[in-house]
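Predict fold of Lipoprotein; 420 aa.
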Amino acid sequence: MAATPRIAAGVALAAACATTLAGCSAGTTGPKGAARKDPGAPAPGTALRLIGDGSTAYTGAQPHLPRPERLKPGQRPPQFVVFSWDGAGEDGQRLFSRFRTVAKANDATMTYFLSGVYLLPEEKRDLYHPPQHAPGRSDIGFNDESGIRDTLDQLRPAWLDGNEIGTHFNGHFCGNDGGVGQWSVDEWKDEIAQARAFVKSWRTNTGLKREPPLPFDYDQELVGARTPCLEGQENFVKAARDLGFRYDTSGVAQQVWPKKAQGLWDLSMQLVPFPGHSEEQLAMDYNFMVNQSGTQTQGDSDKFGEWGDQMRDALLQGFRRAYEGNRAPLVIGNHFESWNGGTYMRAVQEVVESVCTRREVRCVSFRQLVDWLDAQDPQVLGKLRTLGVGQAPEEGWESFLTARPAPAPRGVPGAPPAGP
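Predicted 3D structure, encoded as tokens:
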């Protein structure tokens, strides 16, 4: 198969929100006094053990998580699709709540990378001590009481629905002036510790003592992340490995089966076909915007429909290439933003509705994907990694994957019984 075309010009580095774009501030707040719905209290009958100041709580095993099963000899792998969101927060656009609803309606779960400063009120901004920057500095917004309430009201039911709450860290610093690409391993560890702390202490920092806790232990929940602008991956991965993370999604890759790097699953962002272009495009809304309207977040309104269709069709072509080919998991990244009239949000919703209910398709979070990968026979995964982009086994899946498997890990269906 021919080599994958080059990545579209100007997007290799700026893969997430550019710091110059005001649209990256998912912490902007919604209407004051808006009606609050679906606070997402723990399910009836669950055990609740408050953690720390009661901002978070242990409520038992997360609901709606499928038990990962090892492929049977010769079994074709399912087509995994991961929809993920950088800097997840609920603001006046109401996109967090919108896509939570879309996911439930289409049998999908997703990964929400929460920015810690979205649970930190503006008046407490000096509590944040970003690496290589003055206290209280952030290239994205902090929040106010209304915005924090609204975000909490989405985080609770999102987790109870089976979605993953990851992290997008805090200040979203990119570039050469103290950006994350210049941070040391210890500075990354400090940033991660602060991101955890803001989630685990929002009650203290906001004074919202009567709000129900988040129904999860964030220390256990936090197992992966995507770095701002896809920068700083090398030192972040070292820090994340030391902290017990299980995956990273901060790189750029082709649509092939993933492998581990430095002990973490490398679930990098992927290149997909770019309709009308010879090069390929990163499967992220921001990159489509940059290649369509440059740094203008609201370009030519006459082209909004065309631009959204182009992103939708690119993602669908990437999906079909995998679904009909090597079945490599498809990784899609987005932001809760209404860039170019919200056309990319429309495109993402249409893709979710088109693919997630298809036969042998599983729209899952990164955490669910790594659970499945960890349950598989390493020899089978190694064989899957021999397939190129869009390449289905010539001899068919049954012949390709029929082999004597290694024993399954204990606790996984098909594992040998426990010893005496």
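The chain has one domain: 73-401.
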